[in-house]
Amino acid sequence: MKRKKHMPEGDGVVWSSQYGKMCPRCSRPVAGCVCARVAAAQAGSDGGGVVRVGRETQGRKGSGVSVVTGVPLAGAELKALAKLLKQRCGSGGTLKDGVIEIQGDHRDLLVRLLEERGWTVKRSGG
């Protein structure tokens, strides 16, 4: 049996004995995943520079998190912003693939804090 050098895109593999953890979107090894970079580039061009603040409960057993997407920062600057937002909300959170997640529903406060930094902010979802 011959092994494939590159897995076909979108085949749904999330773990491989050869590569380890795989990205469920592009089916590449997590170290070589390009989904986050592509999403960030699309958010920057398609979103028109708009930072969106929403709320998600999917996959969290009913617990909601406030989600901040489209922030035009990268690397250490984005990490510092996430830390500041968590401190101002008095809550925990994380930074995943360029998306800031803050535990709890803090959308109003987050919109105000991000507008103070000079960004165009829209509240998405309900």
How are the SSEs placed, and which strands pair?
Layout: E1 15-16, E2 20-21, H1 35-46, E3 50-56, E4 65-69, H2 75-89, E5 93-96, E6 99-103, H3 107-116, E7 120-123
Parallel strand pairs: 3-7
Antiparallel strand pairs: 1-2, 3-4, 4-6, 5-6
CATH superfamily of the largest domain: SUI1-like domain
User: Percent of residues in beta strands?
Assistant: 15-25%
CATH class of the largest domain: Alpha Beta
Mean pLDDT: 78
Domains counted in the coordinates: how many?
Answer: 2
Explain this structure.
- The protein is of the alpha+beta class.
- The chain contains 3 helices and 7 strands; from the N terminus they run E-E-H-E-E-H-E-E-H-E.
- The protein folds into 2 domains: about 10-45, no CATH class; about 50-125, 2-Layer Sandwich (Translation Initiation Factor Eif1), CATH 3.30.780.
- Helices cover about 30% and strands about 25% of the residues.
- The chain has helices at about 35-45, 75-90, 105-115; strands at about 15, 20, 50-55, 65-70, 95, 100-105, 120-125.
List key phrases describing it:
about 130 residues; alpha+beta; Translation Initiation Factor Eif1; 2 domains; 5-stranded mixed beta sheet; 3 helices
Please sum up the structure shown:
The protein is an alpha+beta fold and 126 residues long. The strands form 2 sheets. A 5-stranded mixed sheet has the order 5-6-4-3-7, with helices on one face. Strands 1-2 form a two-stranded antiparallel ribbon.
